[in-house]
Amino acid sequence: MASNFWTSSHYKQLLDQEEVDVVHPLDREKGINLEDFKLIKMHMANYIGKLAQNVKVRQRVVATAVTYMRRVYTKKSMTEYDPRVVAPTCLYLASKAEESTVQARVLVYYTRKLYSDEKYRYEIKDILEMEMKILEALNYYLVVFHPYRSLSQLLQDAGMNDTQICWGLVNDTYKMDLILIHPPHLIALACIYVASVLKDKENTAWFEELRVDMNVVSLQS
Amino acid sequence: MALAAFGQLNADDIPSWGSRSVDCFEKLEQIGEGTYGQVYMAREIKTGEIVALKKIRMDNEKEGFPITAIREIKILKKLDHENIIKLKEIVTSQGPEVDEQGKPDSKYNGNIYMVFEYMDHDLTGLADRPGLRFTIPQIKCYMKQLLTGLHYCHVNQVLHRDIKGSNLLIDNEGTLKLADFGLARSFSGDHNANLTNRVITLWYRPPELLLGATKYGPAVDMWSVGCIFAELLHGKPILPGKNEPEQLNKIFELCGSPNEINWPGVSKIPWYNKFKPARQMNKHLREVFRNFDRHALDLLEKMLILDPSQRISAKDALDAEYFWTDPLPCDPKSLPKYESSHEFQTKKKRQQQRQNEEIAKRQKLQHPQQHARLPPIQQTGQAHPQHWTGLNHPVSNYQPPASAGPSHHHYGKPRGPPGGPNRYPPSGNPSGGYYPDRGGQGGGYTSGSYPPQGRAPPYSGSSVPASGPRGAVSGYGVAPANYSQGGQYAGSGAGRGPNPMGGNRSQQYGWQQ
């Protein structure tokens, strides 16, 4: 998206960690604790990723889909919004929003292929129905900014050639709720930092120059 | 006009998650009709605010929430500019189905409405008003706003892809806003993505799309702007093609035919060889529009350049001499206020009008002496005689001799018949084809009649607008001399009611003189 992140709904909707880590009362009744909640969301992020590999959409679509999913669960319960249908639906919606439409029936087909379990059996109409509920839960804010764009710019600026590891790290950030909490360029920076540490590359000077809040980095690990 | 900061679209008085019900609004009147739903004028019950509700049609959607609607919502939430229609919120209505607990099951079966700020007019509806001729400062004012809004879109990497009169909404403050982003989409700067060429209403479609290009950019919108600009000055659409080949032909007749010299790379465009005219055609733009002033012609020529890469950008157009020479564009607020007019409504009113006239005619038959004063049919039906055939209504019989075209009197309310027009509800289409659709089906809130993706075969014709010539309807081209601004409202008791055409313009209706 070309428009400015700082004026976007994405920026205005950034949350604190504490706001994200709230298990919906309905789910708590069912005995889901915060740890379970995080694990389920991580599992769903993986599920979305797997589905996406099968239907062949860009990583960006996956990132948007995961973001939708995480946003939904800041407001809605897993009891009412079954993760097993929310996951493919988020991917479905994200594929439309990111201009690489995947047909609902294709998603249903691969869901069945990936999971033979009865509990994952959903029909096209379930996805379409869930789509409306998700759109509403998202309040129709569909534009998501991702760290990828800043990442490539920053990598260039830092003079790092081995970009693969950073891209991988950014992809991994979607296993957490970071995208709901931090602006994307900070996530990108954090990933570069982690990558530098892993590769024993001395980047401190570059980071100091940027004067970014290094606290973010601690959240990464 | 107070503008809420972006992102605060609906933050204040609406719960931040989940949407309100359409029941918060009271529908007043339908003001548009498009492929993806009707548009209503409505009043918010709580605040009394008038809004436009655009229904997103959900039935027959195999793929859930239509991607066109997703694009429109995404784009509208991204754009925030005074010359772009503001999406206030999205509301839903419950569908009929309920689940086993008897609770409404989901929104899936319901309807979804986009809530927009209400605008009084669209440019086509306004231009079609009888006896209304835009002044030059007024045209400059509208053009400047159109270009400003479009420049903002293009800077934000959004192509509108359906610029036409009925999608340019105008309020009574004189502000013009771009509307209907149902065909719009984001583009990347390098023009590398393949986009569908089946966009933009035919009359406003640029040659590169007609030649099948799938890589294009903001220049497509600028062609449409050029067509609108010329239309405003000329008084009627300048390129009213009936189908794609004819459209191209009309373009070539006006702007010359393309070749590798005036348009490097044109021969690589998919359908170039198919549509290449047998002989080279010359440009006639300056002769056809020789009555335009010099700066207008200069600007128009830069907009209607065949080669998209040479076509003027919105930004450069705003810098054109035209906008900086006398007469300068006027202040929007200084423009006259008109009663509400949307193309959809004016069309509907014309239908009603014809019915009224029919009744008037029946009454008239008892006063045959009046006929003697009327001009013969041939005099008025000159442009498109085929549209007169098979019609048994008498409009032309009542043609006032002073008027050159068969248009104005449709608005006038005959005094003869008892009761107002609303006593005669519109029927289907009493005289199909006489006022053929201009393709877009109504006001700017509605979506164009094109499939969002070019899945149709190139010449299916299904998505070609039913492009009847509008020449016969053009209001301002043939304005009667006795038009005066005050007269528009003189004696008018009609406001925004369902039938604002109530008898305030009888003075223009010549047959009683």
Automatic annotation (TrEMBL), chain A:
Molecular function GO labels: cyclin-dependent protein serine/threonine kinase regulator activity
Domain Cyclin-like residues, every copy: 46-136
GO biological process: cell division; regulation of transcription by RNA polymerase II
InterPro entries registered for this protein in UniProt: Cyclin-like_dom, Cyclin-like_sf, Cyclin/Ssn8, Cyclin_N
SUPFAM superfamilies reported in the protein's UniProt record: Cyclin-like
Keywords: Cell cycle, Cell division, Cyclin
Domain of life according to the entry: Eukaryota
Family of this protein: Belongs to the cyclin family. Cyclin C subfamily.
Matching PANTHER family: CYCLIN
Name this polypeptide is given: Cyclin-C1-2 like
UniProtKB/TrEMBL annotation, chain B:
Catalytic activity: [DNA-directed RNA polymerase] + ATP = phospho-[DNA-directed RNA polymerase] + ADP + H(+); L-threonyl-[protein] + ATP = O-phospho-L-threonyl-[protein] + ADP + H(+); L-seryl-[protein] + ATP = O-phospho-L-seryl-[protein] + ADP + H(+)
Region called Disordered, residue ranges: 334-513
Biased composition (Basic and acidic residues): 334-346
Keyword Lipid biosynthesis included in the entry's annotation: no
GO cellular component term of the entry, any: nucleus
Annotated keywords: ATP-binding, Kinase, Nucleotide-binding, Phosphoprotein, Serine/threonine-protein kinase, Transferase
Amino acid composition bias (Polar residues), ranges on this chain: 504-513
Chain residues that bind ATP: K54
Residue ranges, compositional bias (Pro residues): 415-428
GO biological process, one term: response to virus
A Pfam family matched in the record: Pkinase
Domain Protein kinase: 25-323
Gene Ontology terms, MF aspect: ATP binding; cyclin-dependent protein serine/threonine kinase activity; RNA polymerase II CTD heptapeptide repeat kinase activity
Oligomeric form and interacting partners: Interacts with CYCT1-3.
Family: Belongs to the protein kinase superfamily. CMGC Ser/Thr protein kinase family. CDC2/CDKX subfamily.
Protein's recorded name: Cyclin-dependent kinase
